[in-house]
């Protein structure tokens, strides 16, 4: 059974997640949206074997003192001409020192190929938090032309107190290791296979269900859950909340899947039905 909020959740979180990519910084306060980003942009190009220049811009609305380190890699069919393969600087818009968040590199094509320029940004936010953003700039070289597509996210992750998370739109999704999965790759969120209601003898009659956001692993296992505000006049007591959480432990899920049908960890909204006794 698919929760009726799944499609909305994916669409809404996708818009949130893409916001920093489009605006150059994360202007929202959702935990699942990265606070830093990096943009490779072609600013000079010519023929298929002429050098082209890429401007790289680290940006974000994280702490002013955060230090970013970016690494540029090139794929098959490309040759390095000039510029720093590695660059360190302060990506935050709140940094008041010398601006060191932009630089450029020059690269040329050597043979017809569909390839890419890769950029990995690692930002040390504080001793216990790192942000990692990886982007690809697709390059298509033919015998007569060279064309560039828009930058594509490869992965957007953060490590906090030793736990790695994927930025998942509204929420952070716990994962075990770096993985090349972007929110734009996810075709469908976790779905409910089997559910169990919470039985309540003292709940108000207007309380019909208890809403949660659940985090489901790539194996379909429930990783964790958070109760959400029910809205309206319904109130949820601590006892009911605990009972609903216990009921969730008996729910069964199928994992989220990418466009290539790969099972991945992700989150979704669910509602635990309330049975009044």
Question: Nutshell version of this structure?
Answer:
This protein is mainly beta and 277 residues long. The chain has helices at residues 6-23, 238-248, and strands at 36-44, 52-60, 67-74, 78-82, 86-89, 102-109, 113-126, 129-141, 146-148, 152-160, 163-167, 172-175, 186-188, 191-194, 198-200, 209-216, 222-227, 252-254, 256-258, 263-264, 266-276.
User: What is the 3D form?
Assistant: elongated
CATH hierarchy class name of the largest domain: Mainly Beta
Biggest sheet: strands, sense, closure?
A: 8 strands, antiparallel
Q: What fraction of the residues are assigned to beta strands by DSSP?
A: over 45%
Order of helices and strands: HEEEEEEEEEEEEEEEEEHEEEE
What ranges have pLDDT less than 50 throughout 5 or more consecutive residues?
A: 1-27
When the domains are counted, the total is: 2
Q: What is Rg?
A: 23 Å
Describe what this molecule looks like in 3D.
The protein is mainly beta. It folds into two domains: about 35-165, Immunoglobulins (Immunoglobulin-like); about 185-275, 2-Layer Sandwich (TolA/TonB C-terminal domain). The chain has helices spanning about 5-25, 240-250; strands at about 35-45, 50-60, 65-75, 80, 85-90, 100-110, 115-125, 130-140, 145-150, 150-160, 165, 170-175, 185-190, 190-195, 200, 210-215, 220-225, 250-255, 255-260, 265, 265-275. Strands 3, 5, 7, 8, 9, 10, 11 and 12 form an eight-stranded antiparallel beta sheet that branches. Strands 1-2-6-4 form a four-stranded antiparallel beta sheet, with no helix packed on it. A four-stranded mixed beta sheet has the order 15-21-16-17. A hairpin with a 4-residue loop joins strand 19 (about 255-260) and strand 20. It is elongated, with a radius of gyration of 23 Å. This is TonB C-terminal domain-containing protein. Keywords: Signal.
